[in-house]
Specification:
Elements: H1 13-27, E1 31-35, E2 52-53, E3 56-57, H2 61-70, E4 75-79, E5 87-90, E6 93-96, E7 116-124, E8 130-141, E9 145-148, H3 153-165, E10 172-173, E11 178-180
Helix pairs in contact: 1-2
Amino acid sequence: GFSPWTIAGVSDLDAVRRTVKRAAERYGRVIVAMHIGAEGPAARHTPDRVERFAGETRGNSVAFARAAVESGASLVIGSGPHVLRAIEWNGRSLVAHSLGNLVTYGPFNHSGYNDHGAILCATLAADGSVRDAVLRSTAQLAPGYVRMDPDNLGARDAGELSKQDFPVTGAEITSSGEIKPRPR
């Protein structure tokens, strides 16, 4: 896992490459977590640039994910924006730029895009490729409860963002949450 506050931070892409490559050589299949990017409803889209929030440099999600995948990551899962973001395919690897919130508490706002998220379920094949990926939508209820979302808002939101932000590599997300490569 990487964040702006870890020793190998989200902005140190050389350290990300070294760390992920070592893990891939040792274990074969690697899942990378990234706490990265600006926060809140205004941060739903995934820019290919360094983001800032609250005066801090919060990294470039697109560049980070590319570095992790090129170094052997099978799956890259983001958090940090507290809202859902796009999901994209990079070859055999899958990148979820943010799955939103699962369970929050205290002063967190649960309105609009802040109240839904998703759980990503996937199978990693022996060669590290991602298959059978599905997004299970969730909804948050104050004060810190989560439930499955029968309206599947999270999957629908992630599907729209994937198409908008990554027209070529963005995942196609079906109404049932299945994650597939976009047809060419």
